[in-house]
Structures are given as C-alpha cells and as structure tokens.
Design brief:
Two copies of one chain form a homodimer. By secondary structure, chain A is an alpha/beta fold. In chain A, 48% of the residues lie in helices and 18% in strands. Chain A contains nine helices and nine strands. In chain A, the strands form two sheets. Chain A has a seven-stranded mixed beta sheet with strand order 5-6-4-3-7-8-9, sandwiched between helices. A two-stranded antiparallel sheet of chain A has the order 1-2. The first copy, chain A, binds a DNA duplex through α2 and α4.
Chain lengths: 221, 221
Amino acid sequence: MNSQEENILKSLPHKTIERLSQYRRALLFCFDEGKTHIFSHEIARILHITPVQVRRDLMLIGYSGTLRKGYNIQELIDLISTIIDSHEVMNVAIVGMGDLGRALVNYVKGKRHKLAIVAGFDNNPDKIGTVVADIPCYSIERLSKMIREKNIQIGIISVPRSYTTDIAAKLVEAGIKGILNFTPKPVNVPDHIYLEEYDMLTSLEKVAFYVKVSQEKEKSE
Amino acid sequence: MNSQEENILKSLPHKTIERLSQYRRALLFCFDEGKTHIFSHEIARILHITPVQVRRDLMLIGYSGTLRKGYNIQELIDLISTIIDSHEVMNVAIVGMGDLGRALVNYVKGKRHKLAIVAGFDNNPDKIGTVVADIPCYSIERLSKMIREKNIQIGIISVPRSYTTDIAAKLVEAGIKGILNFTPKPVNVPDHIYLEEYDMLTSLEKVAFYVKVSQEKEKSE
DNA sequence: TATTCATTGTTAATTAAATAACAATACAAA
DNA sequence: TTTGTATTGTTATTTAATTAACAATGAATA
C-alpha cells in the first residue's frame, strides 16, 4: 500500500468507517441472495440512511458505480474489504467466556476471513482447558504468554465489571494493539492502543428515553 | 411534567442523552465508593471526554455544581434519573434467549428501577416454560398476547439473523413502542417506533481498522 | 484584607457530519 | 433523432457536535 492510499484511509471520517462495515455486511447478504448490482437508494433503505450519504461515502473511498445500473456488489465488497480489513489475518482474544463471550465467538466465527478469534480466557476452572465454540479456553494466568505466542492484536473484554481494570492492564502489558470493552467499567489505556467501549445498558436506556418522550408528547396532544 | 420541561427533553442532543446514561452509570459507582462530590474533570477522565463537554451537558439539563467543590453526586444522579427515566417502570421483553439474550438479562437485571425485563421469548422447546435468569421464557407464539398483557413497551431482538424480520414484524404488530435490535439484519419499522440497532461485528471491525492503520503508520516511519 | 487559584457556567468559534443542490450522463421512450 | 428520466458524483450549504475562550466566583493563602 502506497502512502497516498494510506492518507485516504487516515482521512476517512470515523462514521464512514462504521458505515463501510455496515455496507459490506448488507452487500454480502445481497450477494448471497444472487443480486449483482445495487443502487445507492437500496443500500440507504436497508441501513436507514440517505442515498446521498451512501454515494458520498463511496466517493470518499474512490468507488464509481454505473449510471442507471448502480454499484457492482462483488466489486464494492472487495474494495471495502481492502480498505477496512488488514492484509494479514488479525488475531483476536476474548477475555471472559460467559454468556456474552460465547455469543460473540459464535457470532463472529467464520464470518470474516481477516478476523480470527483464536483464544478465550476465563478464570472458571470448568472452562479452562476446554474448547468453547471451537476456540480453546485458557486460564487468565496464561493471557500474557498466549497473546505474544499467538500474535493476538485485539482483545475483547467481556468479564464481570470488577475484573475489567485488571484485565485491561494485563492486555496492555501483553502488548495488545486494540481493545473492545463490553463491560460497564470504562478503562484507561495508553494512546497508542485503540479503544472502543460499548455498554448495552446505555442503548437500552436511550430507547427507553425516546419511548418516554414520545409518550409524553402523545399525552400532551 | 410541564411543557417547558418537555421541551428541554426534546431539545437535548442525542449524544447528550447517551452521555447522561454514562454519567449516571459512572456516578452510581462513585457513590457506592463513598464519594459525595465530583469535579467535571474527574467525570471526563473516567469517560474519556473533555471537562467542557461534561459541563456543557450539565448546563443543558440545568444542573449547577458548587464552585471548587464540584457536583453533588447524589443530586446529579437524581436529576439525570428524572430526565432519562420514565415515570412508571418500563417493561422490556427479550426475544431470543440464547447466549446474548441471557447475557443481557443478567446484566440489566436489578440495575435500573425503571427498567424491568419481564419476559423472554424463544422457539426452543427446552427453554419454553422455564425461568431463565429469573425471567419466564415463553413461546414466540405467545409474544403478541404477552406484550399486551404485561404492558411491554420495549423489545430487544437477540435471535439468529434469519428470524429478525419476522420478530420485528410481530413486535410492531403487538404495539411495541421501541426496539433494540442486536442482530446483523437491519429492520424496518414505522416512524412512531423508536429503533436502535447495534452490531458487535461493526465495533470489532472498527477496532481492527484503526489497529491496521496505526500499524501501517508505524511501518512507514 | 488582598491576592491567587481552581473551578464552574456560558457564549463564541471550530470541526465534523449530514444534507441539499445540481451538473453529467446514459438509457428509455417518443 | 430528440426528449425525458433515473441515477451517479461532487461541490456547496446546513446542521450537529465539540472545543476554545473567558468571565464569574468563592475558597485558600499570603
């Protein structure tokens, strides 16, 4: 990859990166259904956004469709993949093989060629040494060693809240490059590590809030 | 609630709503640790945002702290609660009691007074009729009936992708007010229903992307 | 008592994101 | 062949979100 292409990557808005992932996801399903081409307004409709937004994002990544025929799904999937996927397979570890950890493994498993969940960690003796959803589960004590050995670059934290800080520290110490934290406890990591945090309860509370607001609006009418 | 207060609610930026939920979450933990007051820069540090952002959000909801003493944690928790919580308890159903559904129930259970997960639905005969994580699990066939009977206003979808569309339609038909969709299949719902969608894979791909970019930057240096 | 300082609250400025506007074009229909 | 139309690609505009700037203030300190 030359430096011009690199600069395109770095200049892509964060929101566009998210949407590229969503575009690809939707396109893959369309492809499976036998479609070969798709219009911007079709993509937009699937993802609840505007056609302009779609076209603008595709412009940013330098993809051109065909007038009146739309975008070639296969081509677009491939282009998005060269942009958001790493060149080599990126190895991922999940720390915390409870319900959420297993849900994640089963969902991600086999879906993306360039993302491989290669290890799970837990402190439950019943799980250590077993294979959960096709991936081996190790003791937390072996976390640092396995991360180095298996060249794991991304760590997903799905442990109970009280363990979060400790696990994050261990991941950082082991040289992880990116962390996805699903616990309600925000973590602090050095600047060179990319951190993404998501709390399901915040999403639920957001829904509850807007439901409440719409109900109050109804009442006052 | 008078119409002036209503207007404040409606004018709050979407991002502020999300942060209010995060503020409260962080404040509750601080409160449990025995703290009584907190500075804007402390909240900011916990949530990886700026102190100005915190102060601005609190200004928007009309809360004033004490100079050099910070914000009263208890007061702030209460105020945020009056803003984002509904007056009456809001009932929630989870459709799909697999790993993700159970993770959600266990996580949300007992955490928020105004949010109650009161029913789970699944099509697995082994689960139907049982109690999973303290909530009863019903057959999908009874979904519509139960939603009306139990006055359920929010539905969380955590089923396999292929069932998503059908479940969403059932929820809409049953008169649900808000939907939180955790499946990778976006759903279409009428305008009066608030919809929030989240795909864990997109978060993971985002982390992978930024890890990749930072690595390429390193290489080129 | 006067001065310094840390902190809040608020307006102004900036940046990021989304939307609107519209030219270009190729296909279809007349 | 001409006209109309649907669609792309791109620039301009608007809106939303964040950040900067700074006045106000009251506690701590000299």
